[in-house]
Design the sequence.
């Protein structure tokens, strides 16, 4: 595992409308250029309910730190109820 990485994160809590949140981050290995990236979209349906979608990706050459992982991409859908 590399000790030389670049980390970038961005967040936009009230994107375009007040109930929408966007965010994401990326971790790039400086030596081999492989990347772990994730984006997130949250929509606040009401005071009690939030819908969130996450998408992530591991990209790089087959023998790189991130490219050697067995999963290239993934997604998660989440519905949250607050009590």
Sequence:
């Amino acid at each position: 595992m590399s000790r030389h990485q670049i980390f970038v994160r961005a967040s936009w809590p009230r994107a375009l409308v007040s109930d929408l949140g966007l965010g994401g981050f990326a971790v790039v290995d400086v030596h081999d250029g492989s990347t772990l990236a994730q984006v997130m979209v949250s929509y606040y349906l009401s005071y009690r309910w939030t819908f969130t979608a996450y998408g992530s990706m591991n990209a790089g050459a087959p023998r790189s730190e991130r490219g050697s992982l067995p999963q290239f991409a993934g997604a998660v859908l989440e519905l949250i109820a607050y009590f």
Q: What stands out?
A: Residues 5-81 form one domain. The chain has one domain: 5-81. The first strand starts at residue 5 and ends at 12. The chain has a mean pLDDT of 91.
